[in-house]
Design goal:
104 residues
């Protein structure tokens, strides 16, 4: 299994980076942007562990308005057995340390 396979498996478990919980002003985007951000976090943490330097770029694909009744709706998430809370909880530690603790 390679790095991208792991990210894909995690992305399927939770549209994790529901960006309204990310501590940036006016951060609201769709699940593809959240998944891209989560992958960027993984890559940055991996680069840090390996003492590598570099730039990481990702896209913010839309403003998230299309998802107010789905990915931004707790009831909808519950019907799909999706729980972004464990993923959102890793942000504060990640932002302080650049160490990503993947939820179990």
């Amino acid at each position: 299994m390679n790095f991208l396979d792991v990210l894909d498996a995690e992305a399927r478990r939770a549209p994790s980076a529901r960006l309204h919980a990310f501590p940036l002003p006016a951060a609201c985007a769709g699940p593809s942007t959240g998944t891209a951000l989560w992958a960027a976090f993984h890559l940055a943490a991996k680069m840090r562990r390996e003492h590598r330097r570099g730039a990481i770029a990702t896209l913010i694909c839309d403003d998230g308005a299309l998802y107010k009744n789905t990915y931004y709706n707790d009831s909808w998430l519950a019907t799909k057995a999706l729980n972004p809370a464990p993923y959102q909880a890793v942000y504060p530690h990640y932002l302080k340390t650049a160490e990503l603790r993947t939820p179990e």
